[in-house]
Design goal:
Shape of chain A: globular
Low-confidence stretches of chain B: none
Distance between the termini of chain A: 45 Å
Number of strands of chain B: 0
Order of helices and strands of chain B: HHHHHHHHHHHHH
Mean pLDDT of chain A: 87
Order of helices and strands of chain A: EEEHEEHEHHHHHEHEHEEHHEE
CATH architecture of the largest domain in chain B: Orthogonal Bundle
Oligomer: heterodimer
Mean pLDDT of chain B: 85
Largest sheet of chain B: none
Strand content of chain A: 15-25%
CATH topology of the largest domain in chain B: MetI-like fold
Radius of gyration of chain A: 21 Å
Radius of gyration of chain B: 24 Å
CATH class of the largest domain in chain B: Mainly Alpha
Number of domains of chain B: 2
Largest sheet of chain A: 8 strands, mixed
CATH architecture of one domain in chain A: 3-Layer(aba) Sandwich
Strand content of chain B: under 5%
Helix content of chain B: over 70%
Shape of chain B: globular
Structural class of chain B: mainly alpha
Helix content of chain A: 25-40%
Structural class of chain A: alpha/beta
Strand order of the largest sheet of chain A: 6-7-8-3-9-10-12-11
Number of strands of chain A: 12
CATH superfamily of one domain in chain A: P-loop containing nucleotide triphosphate hydrolases
């Protein structure tokens, strides 16, 4: 541990339920305005994250996970129409203008992107990118910013920090790049980190290291973390709660242990069955047949119905997100616990 | 970095010598005899033969080439047949004008092109963007000599802001020099500025879609920094390429402009020297242009290396 970091309440374990809520998303919806009118991308997403808590946003590609994150960050495309409320540390940020939203980025929210090779600038040095952020957000001088940048790299486990600061992203390995990305994201002391598939582009061996690092940062800094992923193993190991999205909807929401062990929504079940497991003796994987319907071609009623073995007439009307015994589920025919 | 530049330097040697060999051969294989032209219609064959011997034109071609190469190495390009004075003294007089003209034109083209391209990209699909794109297409389609005549008509003849033609060297004062160089440089640079406008616009639009721009925004950096530093840094690369090509093109394309504006430049000198079969002067002129182009390319490579660290390590 380096001297500058915040005192760590290692001995006092505050129960999650008693902790301060960092992010609240209520009935978030997002549509793209185009020539034909409004094209819905995300409908009715609600969840919250507390201090020190990691929440997973799970689903296949095209379910609206990343666009949900960009709406929270305030960097959704210009033609996006966003509804609902986003509250960060008690402030309703969805009501703010673009300039005020930008000021929250870096200082209050940090972002980790999927592909650090392209998410870091190719021709500006690592140090320049870090000190630009530190100088602007924290008002540090160049020398103080460089000092702090070196400490941050040190903290995320990068050796020879001073040399790396002078270097460029193409000189680093994939894992090192993502460590730099993490250092950049936490550099200005945010309370929320949004990580969009932070390990997807990495080698399997490196994935575990990066996840460990994120876990350490979360504990040390009491970070609220929104973790966008399609990897259910990561969800189970790393996240406290999970929000499963399908075609712009939240289909299941609850403790990640409950969802990964006893999913109630057939889609969540399908996601789990599609992952190779080490211990259940299965010899074949069960894929979810078909693909996520493209935006604008969602079926009436339950959007998962065309791919669902349990669908019937009732699924032609849209189910609501209802609280079952353990999780909140949007399904007319949820699976029994333990099924 | 030095290794990279040395490699680049080796690569430009052919750029210098291939055009020289071609010009040397072309001049001697084309009809026309400098000795005959110099002495006029009344000369006897004996007089012509004597002058040919004096100029070394009676030697076999390969021997002439070897002698000429020897001249280059010893920095003695011989005497101009027409001016009867050393080529090494004539060329700098003319080359200075052309290099100044091209430099001013390049600066104008880059300033206009980068500014308009940026404005256009920032206001994508808005009226101002469409206006700029349309103007750029027009600019690319206009022949330079026509635009030069238009400029003369409007700014020199009608408004009388600038002289119609002629040249003052920078020694005469920056204002006197500027007055005679501005219109020619604008005429020469306008097509290149239109090219650069389009290049800057499309390059900027590409870069703005890059993930590292999203990262810069997500770090809370203000839009001026995101655009001015993070986006410009990479978006400028293709414009540097175009600027290099443009400079080469303008160096060669300065002939028409130099003639219209009566500038004593290298292009005009070369055209006249070819007409007079003034071999040493033509060869000296081509050598100069090749050298300038080669140095220019080296400069562009240097700018690349400064802008993009990935190149330095190749």
């Amino acid at each position: 541990m380096t001297a500058h970091s915040a005192p760590m309440p290692a001995e006092i374990v505050v129960p999650l339920a008693a902790r301060r809520t960092v992010l609240e998303v209520e009935n978030l919806s997002l549509s793209f305005r185009n020539a034909d009118g409004l094209l819905p991308i995300v409908t009715d997403v609600s969840f919250s994250i507390r201090e020190g808590e990691a929440v997973a946003l799970v689903g296949e590609s095209g379910c609206g996970k990343s666009i949900t994150a960009s709406a929270i960050m305030g960097i959704a495309p210009e033609n996006a129409v966003i509804g609902g409320r986003i509250v960060l540390n008690g402030q309703e940020i969805s009501a703010l203008g673009p300039k005020d939203r930008r000021k929250l980025c870096g200082r209050h929210m940090g972002f980790i992107f999927q592909e650090p090779m392209t998410a870091l600038h190719p021709t500006l040095s690592i140090g320049r990118q870090m000190t630009d952020t530190l100088k602007h957000n924290l008002g540090l001088s160049q020398s103080a910013a460089t000092q702090r940048a070196a400490e941050l790299l040190d903290r995320v486990g990068i050796p020879r920090a001073r040399d790396i600061l002078r270097g460029y992203v193409h000189e680093l390995s994939g894992g090192m790049r993502q460590r730099v990305m993490i250092a950049l994201a936490i550099s200005c002391g945010p309370s929320l980190i949004i990580a969009d598939e932070p390990t997807t582009a990495l080698d399997v061996t490196i994935q575990a290291q990066v996840l460990d690092l994120l876990e350490d940062m979360r504990r040390e800094m009491d970070l609220a973390m929104l973790f966008i992923t399609h990897d259910l193993e990561v969800v189970g190991d790393f996240c406290d709660r999970a929000v499963v999205m399908y075609a712009g909807d939240v289909v299941e929401r609850g403790q990640s242990a409950d969802i990964t062990r006893h999913p109630s929504h057939p889609y969540a079940r399908g996601l789990i069955d599609a992952v190779p497991a080490h211990d259940d003796g299965r010899t074949r994987l069960t894929p979810i047949l078909g693909t996520v319907p493209p935006v604008g071609q969602w079926p009436e009623g339950c959007r998962f119905a065309p791919r669902c073995g349990r669908a019937d007439e009732k699924c032609r009307t849209r189910p609501r997100l209802e609280t079952l015994s353990q999780t909140d589920v949007r399904c007319w025919h949820p699976l029994e616990a333990g099924a | 970095m030095l290794r990279y530049l040395f490699k680049r330097f080796l690569l430009i040697l052919p750029t210098i010598f291939v055009p020289l060999i071609l010009v040397f051969l072309l001049l001697r294989l084309s009809p026309g005899d400098p000795a005959g032209m110099m002495l006029g219609d009344q000369a006897t064959p004996e007089q012509i033969a004597a002058l040919r011997t004096q100029l070394g034109l009676d030697q076999p071609i390969w021997m002439q080439f070897v002698l000429w190469l020897k001249g280059i190495v010893t920095l003695d390009l011989g005497n101009s047949i027409f001016f009867r004075e050393p080529v090494m003294q004539i060329i700098p007089r003319y080359a200075t004008v052309t290099i100044l003209l091209t430099s001013v034109a390049l600066v104008l083209a880059v300033v206009i092109g980068v500014t308009l391209g940026l404005v256009s990209a920032m206001n994508r699909n808005k009226p101002i963007d469409r206006g700029v794109v349309t103007t750029a297409v027009l600019g690319i389609s206009l022949p330079e000599f026509w635009f030069a005549l238009l400029l003369i008509f409007v700014f020199a003849v009608t408004l009388r802001w600038f002289p119609v033609a002629g040249y003052n060297s920078p020694d005469a004062g920056i204002i006197a020099f500027g007055a005679t160089i501005f219109l020619p440089a604008l005429a020469l640079g306008v097509r290149q500025s239109a090219l650069m406008t389009r290049m800057m616009r499309s390059s900027m639009l590409d870069v703005l879609n890059e993930p590292y721009i999203t990262t810069a925004r997500a770090q809370g950096l203000p839009e001026t920094t995101v655009l001015g530093r993070y986006a410009m840094r990479t978006a400028a690369m293709p414009v540097v390429t175009v600027a290099g090509l443009s400079a080469g093109y303008m160096l060669g394309g300065a002939v028409a402009i130099e003639i219209i504006f009566a500038l004593p430049g290298l292009g005009r000198m070369l055209v006249e020297a070819v007409g007079r079969r003034d071999y040493p002067l033509v060869e000296g002129g081509v050598l100069t242009i090749s050298l300038v182009l080669a140095v220019l390319n080296l400069l562009i490579d240097l700018v690349y290396a400064l802008l993009d660290p990935r190149i330095r390590y190749q």
